[in-house]
């Protein structure tokens, strides 16, 4: 197996034992690290509402020789979608939105599949990836799907009726972010901060300029052709000019509601615990139990997807977990929990060789199994 010698002579092991030690788990996780040339790995385990284990392996930044720590901020990719969904549920609870609302009315331009013009695309369809919208034209700008801005807008839609099929689509959630701004009058990143992060006491956010850049985990994308890792600093591009010329309710993709949250593994675990306990964490209520349960309900039976929450039965035999994964710029992340037995896991790597060059989540599933067997099941 190729070793990560181009960036470092050996993979530094860094141990943080504030929440307990487990030598066997570390030994088995180190084996995964060796197999997949993992640059850095951060893991957190929650049981019965408390963090019972956390550990960091490897490097936050190889070139600067900075090891991972519990202060390291990761861009967690698609797990970010769940923060938008929580905000929507808060607005529904406040009577400002309904899951059956027409997306066209909410986003401010026609959101209609031209092959099914009479079929309303609802807010629920956007949240559950059943809108018939796709990312074939990209997803970084709402202009792509706005009929007044793009003559090729129709290519953003599939050839099946809205609500009939699941297709994972980032553009759905960039529109969700714009809807949040239009409904609240508050910039997307600030809304998430004020209504989720601050009440839970979490440090993080979608706006790079508001965070301590020295804490960012450098992300390393693996080039399978040249067999090397490449740093991806664009993962934390500040978008300063875009924010200066910001249009509320339209420029929202600047903050990437679909994947732009930056947060530590430990704080993500606290956020996960809020979901595990049906919308509340340590006495702080973020959303109602009904809303939390609604997010987890399977809308697509085949894919097991609800509203920014997926059902996973393959990770731990006999257990039904809820959560999400993320992948971008070489990072792979996972947040999964058991809402019945009240345990959960956060696993994040800032770079690795995908096992057999196929299953990009293998480092995540293998790590979760190790953590369950050595910490929860024991």
Automatic annotation (TrEMBL):
Domain annotation Beta-lactamase-related: ranges: 34-363
Gene3D superfamilies the record matches: DD-peptidase/beta-lactamase superfamily
Keyword Signal present in the record's keywords: the answer is: yes
Q: Which UniProt keywords apply?
A: Signal
Q: Residues of the signal sequence? A: 1-19
Note the SUPFAM superfamilies from the entry.
beta-lactamase/transpeptidase-like
Iron as UniProt keyword: no
Give the stretches traversing the membrane. Answer: none
Which PANTHER family does this entry report, sorted A to Z? Answer: BETA-LACTAMASE-RELATED DOMAIN-CONTAINING PROTEIN (PTHR46825:SF9), D-ALANYL-D-ALANINE-CARBOXYPEPTIDASE/ENDOPEPTIDASE AMPH (PTHR46825)
- This chain belongs to the protein called CubicO group peptidase, beta-lactamase class C family
Q: From which organism does this entry originate?
A: Chryseolinea serpens
């Amino acid at each position: 197996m190729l070793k990560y010698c181009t960036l470092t002579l050996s993979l530094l092991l860094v141990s943080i034992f504030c929440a307990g030690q487990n030598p066997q788990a570390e030994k088995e996780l180190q084996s995964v690290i060796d197999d997949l040339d993992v640059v850095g790995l951060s893991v957190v385990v929650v049981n019965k509402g408390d963090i019972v284990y956390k550990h960091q392996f490897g490097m936050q930044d190889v070139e600067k020789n900075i090891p991972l720590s519990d202060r390291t901020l990761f861009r967690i990719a698609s797990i970010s979608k769940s923060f938008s969904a929580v905000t929507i549920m808060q607005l529904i609870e406040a009577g400002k939105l309904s899951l059956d609302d027409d997306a066209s009315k909410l986003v401010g331009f026609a959101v209609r599949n031209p092959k099914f013009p009479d079929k309303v695309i609802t807010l629920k369809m956007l949240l559950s990836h059943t809108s018939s919208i796709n990312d074939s034209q990209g997803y970084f700008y709402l202009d792509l799907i706005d009929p007044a801005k793009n003559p090729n807008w129709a290519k953003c839609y599939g050839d099946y009726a809205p609500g009939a099929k699941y297709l994972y689509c980032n553009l759905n959630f960039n529109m969700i972010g714009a809807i949040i701004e239009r409904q609240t009058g508050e910039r997307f990143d600030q809304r998430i901060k004020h209504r989720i992060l601050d009440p839970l006491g979490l440090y993080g956010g979608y706006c790079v300029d508001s965070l301590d850049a020295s804490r960012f985990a450098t992300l390393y994308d693996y080039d399978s052709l040249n067999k090397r890792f490449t740093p991806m600093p664009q993962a934390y591009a500040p978008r300063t000019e875009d924010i200066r010329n910001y249009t509320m309710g339209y420029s929202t993709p600047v903050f990437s509601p679909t994947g732009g949250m930056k947060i530590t593994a430990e704080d993500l675990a606290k956020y996960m615990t809020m979901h595990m306990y049906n919308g509340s964490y340590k006495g702080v209520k973020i959303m109602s139990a009904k809303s939390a349960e609604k997010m987890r309900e399977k809308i697509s039976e085949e894919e097991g997807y609800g509203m920014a929450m997926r059902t996973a039965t393959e990770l731990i035999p006999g257990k039904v977990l809820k959560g999400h994964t993320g992948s971008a710029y070489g990072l792979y992340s996972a947040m999964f929990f058991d809402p019945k037995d009240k345990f959960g896991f956060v696993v994040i790597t800032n770079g690795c060789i995908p096992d057999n060059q196929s299953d990009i989540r293998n480092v995540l599933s293998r790590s979760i199994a190790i953590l369950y067997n050595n910490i929860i099941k024991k």
